[in-house]
Design a protein that fits this description.
InterPro entries: 4pyrrol_Mease, 4pyrrol_Methylase_sf, 4pyrrole_Mease_sub1, Siro_Cobalamin_biosynth. The protein has about 190 residues and is of the alpha/beta class. The chain is built from 8 helices and 5 strands. It has a 5-stranded parallel β-sheet with strand order 3-2-4-1-5, sandwiched between helices.
Length: about 190
């Protein structure tokens, strides 16, 4: 009876384990890598980068985090490429094309390649991390990934912004040491 119970429990464990692997859900993250120094990388960003299977980043960012992304599929994030095709006005001014000196057809092919890689990876249950310097919600060329892949429910991992780093470097408060807001938690009745 004990042997039967052990076999049954082992079989159930195997089924649950197999099911959890088969149902592994892929995910797309836009991850802040801080502002220049890896010491500014948040713990959450570190964890997402470490567990990522596929990484998109600029050459400079990839170099900064090379120890974290060893052994992963690594691709160029295409600096601001989704901005060209997902902006609200849907039209790229010729002055912008000229300023960046690129061929719009080549950029479309690059966009299609990136899109295919991300969608296939997420479909296969892989974790995809697009690495961004600074905080992508304040400034960054890759925030447009959120619009392009909104159906995948991407997650933004915020980080230390230049505001935080600059104020820490000059040892000054952003408010100049004076109260600039009212916090109802400190109201005395």
């Amino acid at each position: 009876m004990k042997k039967f119970r052990k076999i049954l429990l082992l079989s159930l464990w195997f089924l649950v384990f197999s099911f959890s692997i088969a149902c592994a859900e892929g995910r797309l993250y836009l991850v802040s890598t801080g502002v220049g120094d890896l010491d500014n990388l948040t713990l959450r960003a570190y964890e997402v980068i470490k567990k990522a299977d596929v990484v998109f980043c600029s050459k400079w960012t990839c170099e900064r985090v090379k120890d974290l992304i060893k052994g992963k599929e690594i691709y160029d994030a295409g600096f601001g490429i989704f901005h060209l095709f997902y902006r609200k006005d849907k039209e790229t001014p010729s002055s912008e094309i000229k300023a960046h000196e690129f061929n719009i057809e080549e950029k479309k092919k690059e966009l299609e390649k990136i899109t295919k890689i991300i969608r296939e990876a997420v479909k296969q249950g892989k974790i995809v991390a697009v690495l961004e310097d600074g905080d992508p919600t304040i400034y960054g060329p890759h925030i447009w990934y959120m619009e392009a892949f909104k159906d995948l429910n991407p997650e933004i991992i915020p980080g230390v912004s230049c505001f935080n780093a600059a104020n820490a470097a000059i040892k000054r408060s952003i408010t100049g040491g004076k109260a600039r807001s009212v916090n109802p938690c400190f109201w005395v009745f």
